[in-house]
Amino acid sequence: MVRQRVRLTLHVIGSLLKYFALIYLAPLVTALHYGEEKWYIYLYSLLLTLSIGLILEFGLKTKKDIERADGFTIVAFTWLFISLLGTLPYVLLGLGFLDAFFETMSGFTTTGATIVEVVEELPKSAILWRSLTQWLGGMGVIVLFIAILPRLAVGGSQLFEREFPGPLPEKLRPRFRTTARHLWIIYVFFTVLQIALLFFLARLPLFDSICISFSTLSTGGFSPTTASIEAYANPVAEYIIMFFMLLAGISFIIHYHVLHGNWKAIKDEELRLYLITLAVASVLLVIAQGFTSYRQGIFQAISIMTTTGFASANFAYWHSSAKILLLALMLIGACGSSTGGGIKVMRALMLMKHSGVMMRRAIFPKAVIPVKYNKKPVPDEVIRDIISFLFLYIIVAVVASVVLCFFGLNLETAVSAVAATLGNVGPGLGDVGPALNYAWVPSLPKLILIFCMWLGRLELFTVLMILSPRFWKG
After folding, report:
1. Closest CA to 424 of 399, 390, 398, 455
2. DSSP codes, 404-446
3. Tens digit of pLDDT for each residue in 412-455?
4. Which domain holds residue 276?
């Protein structure tokens, strides 16, 4: 059974890599357009990725259908493979492998933590590649391939649920392939709209508008400039970015319903809590920093809660009350079924409701009081899953933070670095603040943070499952 699962996993990954290789055409064309000397690195990356994909696909053919357990291995290892192969352009540009792996994993998981000290020194093609990795990772590489490849129509549900996880998964259509296609259409529509607004309304350069939009809708945070959005000093651009960060943090299921005229979707309880939390956090940040910096306070509240990680100010030097609030927003994260990371507002909402029910049951022990979401009862197994997720999330965060402290990182830096990578936020506090980077982090802590990014993007269970010996015993 294990051998068949490994064979199927590598076969499917080979099929995906074959098409993934074509993505290198975008930075290749960009390099040729700007007359870059090392344009050939993307051609080499394309050919190598294509070769590996073809070898895996045709060398490990199998008729086995994708089952539930296979979904864990295919999704987890696909993200690992594309992150490893995505290092090729960086390595060929002269970056060390570990740093290249960190940057690529940060890109595909939409974390936005970077080891690049001066972004402007990178070739334009590499800057585009950074943003493109985030855009592909935002909605999900496998979700994209489910939408376009007939081969993944069978077993697509197993892959979709592993890569696009959530406390209460919902389909837009009976077939997961159709659902995946609708999600990507909405995603592309929002991206094109933001590019147009940044270029025509905010007057940003077209190249910068494209890169920023790729990183905004994916809630990634990579910017074409070292100083992030602060470098532009453009209020109109900031308001546009705030709006689309806000959209990206909302469940794309809600976007679908609203765009199809179902306005009742905006009554969703998770959406309400998401907007209330952002409003309260924005007010508190403005109070903490002073009313003269209201735009920065609102921008950072949205950027951190949606786990985008853009910076319009160096919040590492803000008042302690503002920093602890930003750390709390990192942990909460965006809505379920969005491109944002973190624990998710949905889980926080369910835990609040469950706690309320438990208190009522303490008074009326014989009463049957279900937890309800949007006036519908939530199954007990969903609540158990949420509690298990939160427990594992805390355990991983604590253990990783302790290990980082043992390697010499101070408490503020260690805790915020783990929160920023596990929640796929990007910049943290202390020595990994928005004006700094992760290049100085020692090798082993850097590997731990890479692992946190991988865990956070696939919401723990998918990765932890394949690391369990019991899983491989069938």
Report:
1. 455
2. HHHTT--HHHHHHHHHHHHTT----SGGGSTTS-STTS-HHHH
3. 999 999 999 999 999 999 999 999 999 999 999 999 999 999 99
4. 263-329
Please report the DSSP string for 1-37 in residue order.
-HHHHHHHHHHHHHHHHHHHGGGGHHHHHHHHHTT-T
Residue that has been written with the tokens 């192969």 in this structure:
85
Q: Side-chain half-sphere of 55: how many Cα atoms within 13 Å?
A: 6
Instruction: Say how many residues make up the chain.
Output: 474
d(CA 302, CA 242): 7
CA distance 272 to 373: 12
Residue 328, burial from CB neighbour count under 10 angstroms (0-12, 13-18, 19+): middle
Element (H, E) at 377: strand 376-377
Q: How many domains would you assign to the chain?
A: 1
Residue 296 counted as domain residue? yes
Handedness of CA 416, 420, 421, 422 (dihedral sign): positive
Q: What are the C-alpha distances in Å from 395 to residues 67, 330, 359, 389, 400?
A: 29, 16, 26, 10, 8
Summarised one tens digit per residue, pLDDT across range 29-62 is 999 999 999 999 999 999 999 999 999 988 888 7
